[in-house]
Structures are given as structure tokens and as C-alpha cells.
User: Which sequence fits this backbone?
């Protein structure tokens, strides 16, 4: 058993996120375990860049209201208590709405060489505005 008592929260890197996002690591992939998990907090308007995961990702919303979007234009509005499962290889993004904070637990299974995440370009302001204006507003 390992009892972790102090894991600092860090500001997420600008090369992967737009706006103010804070990461609180919970688990990092270390053989033989491959789970990576973090509590991620997004301020209003903050979001990830486009990305995908080799083995998929599970997002469990813990607070606030947010958005999860895919390359085909599908966007879901998520609220505390809801879970989104992103399949392996699907390019997507997630973040807060423009008016609320959003926090989620992000969980991935590593691919043996890290957490299996492939980071891509930023979500444009136009893409984000379209997602905000979509169904469920």
C-alpha cells in the first residue's frame, strides 16, 4: 500500500490548454499499473486543445458545467455527476462553459510508454463559440 499525502496542484501547460486550467495528479502510469488519473479544474472559457488517447479516456464531471466536443462536430453539455467515455483514437476536447467553472476526473490507461495521449492544435475561438451555441444551451 502507498499512502500519498501531498500532491501539489499545478497550472496546466499553455501548449495543451487554452485559459486557466489546474491539474491535481492522482495516479501516474507506472508498471505494472497503467492508470493515469487527475482532477482537472477549468475556469470559465478554459479548455483542452484537440487530443486523442491510444486506449480511450473516461471523464467524470465533479463540479460545474462543461462541454466535450469531437471532430465531427458532436458536442455534449456535461454537468456534475455525469460521465463521458471517449473511445480510443477519437480526437476530442473538453472544458468549461463561458460562464461556469467545471472540474472533472480524467482517467486514461497508459499504452506502456506514458499515458497514451496525442496532443494536437488548440480549439479555435470559433469552434468553442459554436459549441457554446449548440443544443442544450
Assistant:
Amino acid at each position: 500500500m502507498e499512502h500519498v499525502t501531498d500532491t501539489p496542484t499545478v497550472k496546466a501547460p499553455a501548449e495543451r490548454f487554452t485559459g486557466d486550467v489546474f491539474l491535481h495528479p492522482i495516479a501516474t502510469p507506472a508498471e505494472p499499473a497503467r492508470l493515469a488519473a487527475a482532477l482537472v479544474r477549468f475556469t470559465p472559457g478554459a479548455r483542452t486543445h484537440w487530443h486523442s488517447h491510444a486506449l480511450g479516456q473516461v471523464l467524470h464531471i465533479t463540479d460545474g458545467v462543461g462541454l466535450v466536443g469531437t471532430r465531427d462536430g458532436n458536442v455534449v453539455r456535461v454537468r456534475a455527476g455525469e460521465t463521458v467515455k471517449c473511445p480510443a483514437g477519437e480526437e476530442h476536447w473538453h472544458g468549461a462553459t463561458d460562464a461556469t467553472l467545471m472540474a472533472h476526473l480524467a482517467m486514461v490507461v497508459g499504452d506502456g510508454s506514458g499515458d497514451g495521449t496525442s496532443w494536437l492544435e488548440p480549439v479555435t475561438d470559433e469552434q468553442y463559440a459554436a459549441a457554446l451555441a449548440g443544443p442544450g444551451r
